[in-house]
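Homework-ish question, so no full write-ups if that breaks the rules, but can someone show me the predicted structure for this set?
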Amino acid sequence: MATCPDNLFYTKSHEWVREEKDGTVTIGVTDHAQEAMGDMVFVDLPKVGAKLKEKGECGVLESVKSASDFYSPIAGEVVEVNEKLSSSPDLVNKEPYDKGWIARIKPDNKDAAKKLLSADAYTKIADEA
Amino acid sequence: MAKKTPLYKQHLAANAKMSDFAGWEMPLSYISPIEEHKQVRNDAGMFDVSHMTVVDFKGSDARDFLRYLITNDVDKLTSEGKALYSCMLNEKGGIVDDLIVYKINNQRYRMVINAATHDKDLAWINKNINDFDVELAEATNIAMLAIQGPHAIEKTQQVFTKEQQTTTKDLENFQGIAVNNWWIARTGYTGEDGYEIILPATEAEEFWNKLIEVGVKPCGLIARDSLRLEAGMRLYGSDMDETTTPLESGLGWAIAWEPEDRDFIGKEALIKQKAVGTTQKVIGLILEGRGVLRPHQKVMLDDNNFGETTSGGFSPTLGVSIALARIPKITADKCFVEIREQQIPAKIVKPVFARNGKPAS
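A: Not a homework solution, just the prediction itself:
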């Protein structure tokens, strides 16, 4: 059964957002998404400094069976990316909410994350998918 | 509704991710495709391949008909049980399917063909029977299991009956033998040693469970595809189809040109193509830059010469992405592959990447 921590915000396209104390947000893909995609073999990360649009393409995740675009849940500027995913894309499978994070973003609107789905709302969507 | 194999319940019990494949509900993977792949390269894994089509050819003309129907020559099968890989062509030399044929005896042969091509293959075979005295019998109520890996033979032997053990003791590579109503063959599609076994559907569940008990792990279609790709084995519908001939698919070795007086469907077209020369060849690619090779990516050799990947994916044995590609017949050892509008460098190699547990250096 896929997990879905309460302290995060979610999108219908299976990304998660965590608000950090310094005003930035960390983004990644959900446990449900990684489970559906299977063994990850390549992650194409956004560039530090890139300006992302809400729901805009910000990277690609490739598993053994398929390639999937990764969309930024919120608008903002990329301040850090998880370089470890270049050599260990399987971190997305093993720890989707921790070591498998994808990027840290400085949001254009600091309350943007709060408009996203709660864990409960996301779980309902993921269960139906 | 998708068809189910006799092992459907076992797949669900093993938590398989199921998917429709050629009209059958088949396991894509159980725990992890990469772990399943490594299990086969290093130990022993098993695949439910009950969706594949098994057809027996019986009658006084079985041999003559097969010599006419397929590119390879069943007369090469000098002893009973021997297996032969072959293509079946249309008149233009295009590949209708690729297959394995076993000689059971002089008047009986067994053919294993792809699931996805079941209907068109049977229609094609029936259309060409004409006056040949051959009866086709498609095996029904059977299961087919491929047990593959360096320890596959040893582990399967542990669960065989005494009779099965004795009968299969000296089974050679690419040979099969009947033991009561089982067909046990030392063939496969992974580049590893092992068995492909056709058995009555009613006995499949028990056999599967016994294999699990001795440590043979279930493996799904994703691992099957990455294993065959590493082994450089072609996949019908991806690496070749009715628009390509065996000569353009690196399968010239599956054509028997001798004896010259044997005619087979598509032979005339192949002779013409051979005389003119083919313009394309199949090569292997190892990606040197970042990304994953997939089918239908553009391969750039220089400003004027382009090809296309036909199969591609991640190679768990090499730890990088690999592909089979069809390119113009020019000499080159490097190329670029277009992945999401970027040109990524790749090395051109012989189309075999790994077999028998290790990279094919």
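Now go work out the reasoning yourself. Hint: The mean pLDDT of chain B is 97.
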